Amino acid sequence: MADLEALKIYADYVQSVFEVWTTPLPEFYDPEKVEQYFSCRPHVLLLRMIEVLASFSYAVIRVQFARAFKFIWQGAYENYSLRDSQYHVGQILKEAMLHLGPTFVKVGQSLSTRPDIIGSETSEALSGLHDKIPAFPRAVAMKIIEKELGGPVNYFFKYISEEPVAAASFGQVYQGCTLDGCIVAIKVQRPDLLHSVVRDIYILRLGLNILRIVAKRKNDLSLYADELGKGLVGELDYRIEAANASEFLEAHSRYSFMLVPRVHRHLSTKKVLTMEWMVGENPNHLLLQSRGLSHGENKHTKVLQLEAKRCLLDLVNKGVEATLVQLLESGLLHADPHPGNLFYTKDGRIGFMDFGLLCRMKKEHQTAMLASIIHIVNGDWGALVYDLTLMDVVRPNTNLYHVRKDLVETLGVVDYSNGIPAFKFSLVLGKIWSIALKYHFRMPPYFTLVLRSLASWEGLAVAADQNFKTFEAAYPYVVMKLLHDNSATTRRILYSVVFNKRMEIQWKKVQLFLKIGSVRYVDEKSQRNKQDAFEVVHLILRLLLSKDGAVLRRLLMAADTVSLTEAMISKDAWLFRRYIGLALADAIYRRAILTENGSQVYEMEGKQTRNIGSTSPASTHLHSIMQDRRLRVIFYRKFKEVSRHPLLMLRASWSCFTVFVMALAITLNRFVANFFDAFFNSIKFVPGRIAVSFSQSNSS
User: Which segment of the chain is annotated as a signal peptide (predicted)?
Assistant: First the structure.
């Protein structure tokens, strides 16, 4: 009986071992199931760990050897500038990652976008991982397509290019044509990728656990490996990427400058993704062209160089705006915005590719990000610390006073150049990162994505134009967001910029706010400073009258009447008063010359409507403001409040009187100018008429 029990236990053990050995690798990353899978396959882990250890040990030896003997082996490095040792380290690290396969290449690509952690030189070296991925054989790719789609390739495509047009860490792309004639991009996954990715993530998990024990850290470092594993394994299912691409397209379809390819669902599976073919320039290619490095010396090089620089800067400005659209509007972020996944089209749009990962933001984080941009530009570091707390970046129980003190000491007072913060975004980012490391800030995925994306755009732009400033490109969009969004949280941010605690207008901050915020819009109209300033006023008045002007109208209603009136009659507001004066002059002039019993000027002009001209925008806005019931209510309320302060009322009346006198003077000047213009036109020298008169006098 005992023998039978022992035999049964042994049989159950054999069965359980057999079940473990026959259990397939999970297709979705689950730390427990992955550990169970590899715990009974130690030989697989051991061989891979030896390979990884040998590769990195060899890299370390090469670095030390080069530093010790002050020279570097010739061969793979002869095309690189090795004057900087950190760049050299990055090159060696890049080769090690290429040798170790797709998972390490993917990790290296992520590190290349984090110069704040690994340094700019190492980051530049690792960025080559986006372009140096070797392709796998075409025959293997065709077999994968046939297996996934369930039939021969010619059942689905008229043709597929012989060579891949691009090769990435997890797949490669071919150009093809569907049976109905659509040109498409066909992305095919590398073979046996799931096993190698999960195995490498598990090894990384073991390494982080060992590091936690050695470093005596309380937090579980293996969670970082688990997060990375979930992301990378998720990228292996192209059905998820297809759904992400469709979601990203739908979320941003109303932004005409953003281009997202459409997915051909019937030709997409887990390992094959077919999308609309897009044509455009790679940002790195534009950068090379702008430096004159992609063409030989000829007479067209300079023209191509200037055009490439223009396109690159346009791409960067639209890239910054696209980042802000994702951040502040849709809350749906492209998780891998490196240059290899972006392109610039001939019609000036920015295109996106590779939607394996998307990051979704909470509304409160979007609002906090919006506030942080405003507070950085204004140098309000105390408010920035509060914003970081709302973003879940600052950990609970952190001493906020010390964080604020360090920010003030590190960043200091903001210097402005023509109203724009003089510092670069990368500089601010680097200093914030140093404080983040000191106080052990958390780094939510969306936070690192946004900062990485903006820093990447600035890096591209600065390479072509040293004067580029990210804040100058970003702030106009932020200002328009504040002026159009009528939500309570956004209004609170706007009020913090415009008002002090007593709801008095901070005119200098308002000037800065409008000057930076309207740069993009006024530059399209004129390059003259005075005209630019008029366009700012024009923009504000137009918004005030529109249905989107509820924010501005609320702001006027909430403002302290005394401070608002003092601001309007101050020296700083002279341009606004001049704009009103010009509008009033135009209205008076048109009313006078179009009156039924017009003056002699009207009779002399006759049908010369060119002297009358079309109604100016300023005059139109003034008339609309006077007719708008909502604004009349606001003005009447403010007038009643000002009337309680006789001295202020007297000053305001005098200011209005000077505006009216200025308008009359401008009107009189136009009348006199038109009078003499009409007079001289009536006696204009006409040779034909004089010749006729002369012949008639002779005949008589």
Answer: none
Sign of CA dihedral 55, 57, 61, 64: positive
CATH fourth-level superfamily of 135-194+228-278: Phosphorylase Kinase; domain 1 (3.30.200.20)
Give 420's strand partners.
417
- The whole-number pLDDT of residue 217 equals 67
> Hey, what are 564's tokens?
């608002």
Q: Which residues contact 53 (CB under 8 A, 6 or more apart)?
A: none
CATH 3.30.200.20 positions along the chain are 135-194+228-278
CA 689 distance to own-chain centroid: 67
Predicted confidence band of residue 680 (pLDDT cuts 50, 70, 90):
confident
Higher pLDDT: 417 or 643? It is: 643
User: Is the model's pLDDT at 691 over the cut of 50?
Assistant: no
Q: Can you list the positions of beta strands (E) in 399-532?
A: 416-417, 420-421
* CA–CA gap between residue 316 and residue 579 (Å, rounded): 34
CB neighbour class for 439 (10 Å; exposed up to 12, middle 13-18, buried from 19): middle
Q: What is the CA radius of gyration of the chain?
A: 34
Q: Print burial letters for 176-189: b (CB count within 10 Å at least 16), e (below 16).
A: bbbeeebebbbbbb
The DSSP output letter for 615 is P
DSSP 8-class letter at 330: I
Render 189-222 in DSSP notation, one character per residue.
Answer: EPTTHHHHHHHHHHHHHHHHHHHHHHHT-SS-TH
How far, in whole angstroms, is CA 386 from its chain's centroid?
A: 23
H or E, element range at 344:
strand 342-344
CB atoms within 10 A of CB 201: 23
Pairing of strands 350-352, 342-344: antiparallel
Q: Which residue has the higher pLDDT, 129 or 603?
A: 129
Q: Which residues of 590-601 are buried (b: 16+ CB within 10 A; e: fewer)?
A: beebeeeeeeeb
Give the residue-averaged pLDDT of 310-336: 89
CA–CA gap between residue 240 and residue 242 (Å, rounded): 5
- Measured distance CA(124)–CA(456) in Å, rounded: 11
pLDDT value for 332: 92
Asked if 120 contacts 208 with a C-beta cutoff of 8 angstroms, the reply is no
